[in-house]
Automatic annotation (TrEMBL):
Record bears the keyword Mitochondrion: no
UniProt cross-references to InterPro entries, sorted A to Z: aa-tRNA-synth_II/BPL/LPL, Biotin_CoA_COase_ligase, BPL_C, BPL_LPL_catalytic, Transcriptional_repressor_C
CDD domains, per the entry: BPL
BPL/LPL catalytic domain: residues covered: 7-201
Gene field: birA_2
Protein name according to UniProt: biotin--[biotin carboxyl-carrier protein] ligase
An example Gene Ontology CC term for this record: cytoplasm
PANTHER family, per database record: BIOTIN PROTEIN LIGASE, BIOTIN--PROTEIN LIGASE
Domain of life: Bacteria
Highest classification ranks of the organism: Bacteria, Pseudomonadati, Pseudomonadota, Betaproteobacteria, Burkholderiales
Biological source species: Saezia sanguinis
One Gene Ontology molecular-function label: ATP binding
Reaction(s) this enzyme catalyzes, per UniProt: biotin + L-lysyl-[protein] + ATP = N(6)-biotinyl-L-lysyl-[protein] + AMP + diphosphate + H(+)
Known EC number: 6.3.4.15
Length: 263
């Protein structure tokens, strides 16, 4: 299958933000995040976006594998300078991705800290079932005195193989709007992501607090964590940490510490 990737259009939109920005598109790689981390380690530190039609060893949060056939999932990574004094980048990126996918944006919610979910009625029970549509992985690396972020984003486009089993049923863009494909999703999302990272380095999470609150899947819902905390989602603090209201008071959960699911 041949894809018509909008590389030049994306470059024209992002280049004013980062004059030395480049975008590379490859048919296959092990992991776009791994490749960009290796580039930074070798001294290639200019902002770059790497898009792969197929990944053989893609990585998600907590080391989870992410693999897909060409066209079934949009998989790309962005490497850019990072202000280490700011916190909550994955939440800002979630807001930016939802804003970009504005034709379905009212259905999409951010599941702290780095996933985008949506609900669809179960055909048998009529109850809403949540589906994971987007995964975001933020990794950081220090080169010299500068810290860099390598941001991996995976967006499901087509339904997964029927034989696959998932704890959370996967969602896919074509379930919400059949006009989407991987190139059109990249064209919408990539400029928003780049601009969000650029603005985040200066302003941090604060300008996105209200936007996140409107998209927060966990707020007001009963939650449990993998280390036994139970309570009600109470939003996030100024650093992007999850707040859970429990019988023992307000608990603060830091990114990467535990997994959280609505009851």
């Amino acid at each position: 299958m041949k894809f018509n990737w909008p590389a030049e259009s994306i470059w024209e939109q992002i280049q004013p933000v980062w004059p030395d920005f480049t975008i590379d598109i490859v048919s296959q790689t092990d992991s776009t995040n791994t490749q960009l981390l290796q580039r930074i380690r070798s001294g290639q530190t200019a902002p770059v976006m790497l898009v792969a039609e197929t990944q053989t060893a893609g990585r998600g949060r907590m080391g989870k594998a992410w693999a897909s056939q060409a066209g079934d999932t949009l998989m790309f990574s962005l490497a850019a300078p990072l202000n280490p004094e700011q916190h909550g980048l994955s939440l800002v990126l979630g807001c930016a991705v939802i804003t970009a996918l504005d034709t379905i944006g009212q259905k999409l919610k951010i599941k702290w800290p780095n996933d985008i979910w949506y609900a669809q009625p179960d055909p048998n029970t009529g109850q809403n079932l949540w589906h994971k549509l987007v995964g975001i992985l933020v990794e950081t690396i220090l080169y010299g005195r500068q810290r860099y972020a390598v941001i991996g984003i995976g967006i499901n486009i087509n339904p997964p193989p029927q034989q696959s089993t998932y704890h959370t049923p996967p969602g896919y863009l074509k379930q919400l709007d059949p006009r989407w494909d991987a190139p059109s999703a990249l064209a919408c999302v990539a400029p928003h992501v780049a601009q969000a990272v650029y603005n985040f380095n200066t302003h941090g999470l604060a300008p996105w607090q209200q936007s996140f609150a409107q998209k927060d899947l966990l707020a007001g819902n009963r939650l449990y964590t993998s280390n036994g905390i139970q309570g009600t989602g109470a939003g996030i603090d100024l650093h992007g940490n999850l707040l859970i209201k429990t019988a023992d008071g307000l608990k603060t959960i830091s990114s990467g510490e535990v997994s959280v699911r609505p009851c």
